[in-house]
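Memo to structure team: turn this sequence into structure tokens by end of day. - J.P.
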Amino acid sequence: MSRIETDTVFVRRDFLEPEAPPPSLGGFPGWARKHLFSSPLNIAISLAMLLLLAWMLPPLIRWLFVDAVWTGSNREACLPKDGERVGACWAFINAKLAQFTFGSYPADQRWRPSLVMVSFFIGLAWVAIPKMPRRREATWLMLTAFPVATFWLLYGGLGLPIVETSNWGGLLVTLVVAITGIVASLPLGILLALGRRSKLPFIKIVSVVFIEVWRGVPLITVLFMASVMLPLFLPTGVNFDKLLRALIGVALFTGAYMAETIRGGLQAIPKGQYEGAASLGLGYWQSMRLIILPQALKIVIPGIVNSFISLFKDTSLVMIIGLYDLLGSIQRNFSDANWSTPSIAPTGLIFAAAVFWVFCFSMSRYSMYMERKLNTGRKR
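Reply from structure team:
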């Protein structure tokens, strides 16, 4: 009787768990080795930058924090005494912080913009954080009821004293202009992008002319025209609020740029997606809403956020028409004789730059998070 030998074959049912990288390739040393010291040229550049930082950072930190003046009620606190070094005048920022935030808004009514700002950031966090409950309801609430409540609280009426927009200023104006421009420009840009790709000649021509005209002039010209030239074409006795004119100009200007960004996303969608939507019996608006636009907007998230960041920084241009945003309010207080010292101008500008950087960096980081979350086309 012959013996038949068989080989036992083992088939693994699960993938092995990935092992940790070698110590030299993981963590900060691995990142530095890959990005900073991967070649002789990178090593030379990295060492030069480290030497530059070692030369610049110590005196900068000393001026900003060590020799800085943190408390005081007037310019005397920030003037050098007996030859001592005096750094940044943060006492000036502390004394003027309310004006930098609210402008000339009446002091006894500043609880109203404070409530609006707190409510906005709470609502924004509610909508932006994926694990929050009832995000859809919160989104509709922020898009419908919140703007109405904001206008009532800031402007007044129905039991609240009226505060004219000429008294608004500081960070309040910056946020109002930026948020209004962002919210209004996105749907306007989508409609213009779809119109420019339309097969109807009239709609396409109107969209093209609108986009090219608004993209062909600088924002400062748009604001100047909205503030100075527009009233000349209105009937006698008819006038628009200056802030409202600025909001309309900013929204239309940003909408034109947004349209080109979104059009790039629409052109990146393969033709098969349009044909697949048509094969399912979907109409134009159904296919755009359910299939095409979600993919196109996902592709152009970096471009959209770049436009939002640019708009947020461009809000400082409203100074040209007499509206004082954060930067304008800070520069306006440089002429205060009670705080006239050589250090208040650099301190104020550094403070404004820090505030703008915090908002712009936050938008940039959140856009990167959304890109990773929506990145369904490739491995993470």
